[in-house]
User: Which sequence fits this backbone?
């Protein structure tokens, strides 16, 4: 473990500690999949209940999931799950179409945080939410943290759980829908993904409202009616 890694992991946990104050536990929450044009959104909540040097060693490379390689995210995924209380929640394409992507993401965060807090069995929990939007319909102490996945250990861990879970889900879908390249693009609207949509049409896993600039109203309406399989 390098000096830089030691510094980073301690910085992440120190950030959480500075916000702890009168709280017994810190819960971090983040989502993955707000931007893609296909697939569900995932959110996770994480609470480290036992923080010590052994945990620092295990999580030495912990950082914002976007700053880590897929290999490192996969390595950390199991380590995080073994050393925290967590919940991962999926928000369906139907939910995204109905509530919009922001509200679906926040609702998945809410469900995740409620689950973790219930298992902690403590009323003294503070939730650190990645971004600048507070969780709706959640009457618990919460603080928004812009770019929190690079500042907070709990948020960074949640970002990894959500990201890995979603990536695995999209890889599984790609077996049934190989023409869209989801095992590579994870549902993001890359040039090759857009070309595939234009050629084969959208599926039930595509977010119709995200395709308005790609397809005309006729195609979009057809997708919403389930005419593409």
Assistant:
């Amino acid at each position: 473990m390098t000096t830089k890694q030691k510094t980073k992991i301690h910085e992440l946990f120190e950030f959480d500690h500075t916000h702890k104050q009168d709280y017994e536990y810190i819960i971090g929450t983040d989502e993955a999949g707000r931007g893609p044009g296909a697939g569900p959104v995932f959110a996770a909540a994480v609470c480290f209940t036992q923080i010590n040097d052994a945990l620092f060693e295990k999580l030495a490379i912990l950082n914002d999931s976007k700053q880590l390689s897929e290999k490192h995210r996969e390595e950390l995924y199991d380590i995080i799950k073994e050393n925290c209380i967590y919940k991962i929640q999926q928000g369906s394409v139907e939910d995204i179409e109905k509530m919009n992507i922001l509200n679906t993401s926040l609702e998945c965060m809410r469900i995740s945080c409620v689950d973790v807090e219930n298992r902690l069995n403590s009323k003294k929990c503070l939730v650190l939410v990645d971004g600048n939007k507070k969780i709706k319909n959640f009457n618990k102490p919460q603080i928004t943290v812009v770019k929190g996945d690079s500042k907070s250990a709990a948020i960074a861990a949640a970002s990894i759980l959500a990201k890995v879970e979603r990536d695995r889900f999209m890889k599984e879908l790609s077996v049934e829908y190989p023409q869209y390249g989801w095992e590579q693009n994870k549902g993001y609207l890359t040039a090759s993904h857009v070309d595939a949509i234009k050629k084969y049409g959208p599926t039930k896993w595509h977010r119709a409202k995200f395709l308005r600039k790609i397809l005309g109203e006729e195609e979009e309406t057809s997708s919403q009616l389930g005419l593409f399989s």
About this structure: The mean pLDDT is 91.
